[in-house]
Write a structure and sequence with these properties.
The chain has one domain: GroES chaperonin (10 Kd Chaperonin, Protein Cpn10, Chain O, Roll). It is built from 3 helices and 6 strands, in the order ααβαβββββ. The longest helix has 9 residues.
Length: about 120
């Protein structure tokens, strides 16, 4: 990481995009670097797990998320700060300073997850 980013960590936050319309900005939770038995995972396996994850963390929602009362008669399916479950490979993937984020549509949410630890794609 460059000294500039370390000296001014708030600059990193300003680079996050503001989701527009019915899109949501989500982060990929950290992938464990070890198996349950304590052995280290290869970097290639960690990247595959990150790439195909079904768990996301909702950072920010666009202004039009869940406004369509016909499609969402019971209101929003999730809120900022929730861990959610989506289909593998969902959304527009991008990285900022090596950390992966995704922009997904509001109707891509399949479930809210209270404790995402241990959930992996089958």
């Amino acid at each position: 990481m460059s000294e500039e980013v370390q000296a001014f960590p708030e600059e990193k936050a300003k680079q996050l995009p503001d989701p527009q319309g019915y899109r949501m900005l989500c982060a990929i939770p950290e992938v464990e670097d070890k198996f349950e038995n304590g052995l280290l995972k290869p970097d290639s396996l960690q990247k595959i797990e990150e790439f195909s994850t079904v768990i996301l963390f909702v950072i920010k929602m666009g202004p039009d998320c869940y406004l369509d009362k016909t499609r969402f008669p019971n209101g929003p399916w999730c809120k900022e700060g929730d861990f959610i479950m989506v289909r593998a490979y969902s959304g527009t993937r991008f990285k900022i300073h090596g950390r992966e984020f995704r922009l997904i549509n509001d109707d891509s949410v399949e479930a809210v997850v209270q404790d995402p630890r241990g959930i992996t794609r089958a």
